[in-house]
């Protein structure tokens, strides 16, 4: 069974907002770190935001101030609120979990549980 299931992607015009959700299994949700990554066509996967099981957050420079990661402990869910979206934000967005905690929070290889992704398309 899939341990991470993303939802909430879609198409939006530049300047708009979307909220992504990631429903996690108990095992995945108890991970030391969870994160959102994205992969745009022709580009490598990029780390966007992380959150620890204690609620500490970190953001990539490309999204800081526009995106907000949060966790709902009652629902075993993390979310990514995305505001002021730009065409450059167009990508497949992935939820990921690192049970033991990563040495490098932006290194995708240190996240061992992944969702299948949800597409976000931002038009100008």
Can you characterise this structure?
The protein contains one helix and eleven strands, in the order βββαββββββββ. By secondary structure, the protein is mainly beta. Strands 2, 4, 5, 6, 9, 10 and 11 form a seven-stranded mixed beta sheet that branches. The protein has a four-stranded antiparallel beta sheet with strand order 1-3-8-7. The chain starts with a strand and ends with a strand. The model has no long low-confidence stretch (mean pLDDT 97).
Amount of beta strand: over 45%
Mean pLDDT: 97
**Helical fraction:** under 10%
Shape: globular
- Biggest sheet details: 7 strands, mixed
DSSP, total strands: 11
Weakly predicted, low-confidence segments: none
What's the gyration radius in Å? 13 Å
Structural class: mainly beta
Order of helices and strands: EEEHEEEEEEEE
Terminal CA distance: 37 Å
* Structure annotation, total helices: 1
Features:
124 residues, seven-stranded mixed β-sheet, mainly beta
């Amino acid at each position: 069974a899939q341990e991470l299931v993303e939802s909430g992607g879609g198409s939006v015009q530049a300047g708009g907002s979307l909220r992504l959700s990631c429903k996690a299994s108990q095992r995945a949700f108890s991970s030391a770190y969870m994160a959102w990554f994205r992969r745009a066509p022709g580009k490598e996967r990029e780390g966007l935001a992380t959150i620890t099981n204690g609620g500490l957050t970190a953001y990539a420079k490309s999204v800081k101030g526009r995106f907000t990661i949060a966790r709902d402990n009652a629902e075993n869910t993390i979310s990514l609120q995305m505001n002021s979206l730009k065409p450059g934000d167009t990508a497949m967005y992935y939820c990921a979990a690192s049970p033991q905690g990563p040495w490098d929070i932006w290194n995708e290889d240190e996240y061992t549980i992944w969702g299948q992704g949800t597409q976000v398309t931002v038009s100008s």
